[in-house]
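Model it.
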Amino acid sequence: MTERTAVLEQVRATTAAAAASGDAWPDVLVGLLTEINATWQESADACADLAWQARTTGSSALLVLRPEQITSPGPDPVTARAHRHLYLAGLRYDFRCPSIEALVHRMPPSVVDRLDAYSRAMWAFALLGQSRTDGFVLMDEVLVEAGDHPKTLQVLLHGLWLGHRLPGREERMLRLLDLPPFAGRADPIALFRKAAALRGLGNYRKALEAIDQALDLLPPGDPAVHADLVRERSLITAAHDWARLARTSDASAQR
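Modeled.
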């Protein structure tokens, strides 16, 4: 473990302890990220994970932060960016796409023009999640800026998954899933998204393989995510059964 990694792990541990004690944990996290002058990638990684953990315990960042902290330039770039990451992550986890879009529209041009790739991915998520094809343009821009940053790619995948009326949705998801961060096939959420895309394309055998692998890799202690994966497996088997019944019916009708 590098010295920088050790510092970031301490940031996470300190913030988790603050959240458990009922303190204003977003202020603790933002202060620590500002103190170490975190990069946008480091900020995104910490904020995404801790926002999810806090949400599961009823301590969402949305209960502490104010929209004004997201739309204003802020006291310094690292602080402002961390506030945005936390608040936008909270909205994303609640699937509040219109709220994310409204916040971006409230930002002055000087803020929008300087948004980091992860924040822009949240904006793309909001558009894609509403099945808006203008999200594709923003998504492609983010892919150029973000490189292979896993958390950013997960946000884009989430938006595509949510935007069920998007043309070519499944093919775009599979192209994202072919990128290096997912090549090891050890990410249960990525496999969950892959199963959904394959189900949409009618490839039920491979969809079942992906969701079963996701269920096997999912760490214990997250029943909500486990339930989502089980639900996806049920959708795959139901779609497979319907397709088989439809083929049988067509064959009978032709006799």
